[in-house]
């Protein structure tokens, strides 16, 4: 526990904290298993009879483990986090989306509004399914870029794809809020 404490205090990488390779493609069962094992070992309830410093440290570790799990279990947040760890540009620096996607954004929004106005549930369901498939494909593209040995050359492209993906996720959210 002492080594884990030192790492937590030194702003450890979430991949390292959960004992996972620093990569986009992860086995979600491994993410969960590692999280549960480390959470169990460091849970504050197991340190109730320890010194107040050990209790505080245990609480900090548990909090960081929870945050690491929350971020790494979800592909979009994992991609955002990994991009940051690799020195990629933040969204505030690169706000644009891939050019091919820009031409479609207005059309997608208009289609959504039209289907809402018509109360066309079948059309809305189909649009949601299409957007979910698109999200899956976009995540695969991002994963492929992260997997390349020259990933450093693609950080700006990854940022642009994540920007577009965020827009698609927003459309899916809007569809579900209807």
Automatic annotation (TrEMBL):
It holds the Pfam family HSCB_C. GO terms for biological process: [2Fe-2S] cluster assembly; protein complex oligomerization. Coiled coil: none annotated. One of its GO terms (molecular function) is ATPase activator activity. It comes from the Bacteria. The keyword Amino-acid biosynthesis does not apply. Residues 13-85 form the J domain. Keywords: Chaperone. Co-chaperone involved in the maturation of iron-sulfur cluster-containing proteins. Seems to help targeting proteins to be folded toward HscA. Belongs to the HscB family. This is Fe-S protein assembly co-chaperone HscB.
């Amino acid at each position: 526990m002492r080594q884990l404490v030192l790492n937590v205090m030194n702003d450890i990488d979430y991949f390292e904290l959960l004992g996972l390779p620093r990569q986009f493609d992860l086995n979600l069962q491994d993410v969960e298993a590692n999280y549960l094992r480390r959470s169990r070992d460091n849970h504050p309830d197991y340190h109730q009879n320890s010194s107040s410093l050990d209790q505080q440290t245990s609480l900090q570790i548990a909090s960081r483990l929870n945050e690491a799990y929350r971020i790494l279990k979800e592909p979009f947040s994992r991609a955002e986090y990994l991009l940051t760890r690799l020195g990629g540009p933040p969204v505030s620096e690169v706000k644009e989306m891939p050019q091919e996607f820009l031409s479609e954004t207005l059309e997608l929004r208009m289609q959504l509004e039209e289907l809402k106005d018509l109360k066309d549930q079948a059309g809305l369901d189909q649009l949601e399914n299409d957007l979910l498939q698109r999200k899956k494909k976009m995540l695969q593209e991002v994963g492929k870029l992260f997997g390349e040995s020259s990933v450093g050359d693609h950080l700006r492209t990854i940022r642009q794809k994540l920007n577009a993906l965020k827009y698609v996720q927003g459309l899916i959210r809007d569809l579900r809020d209807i």
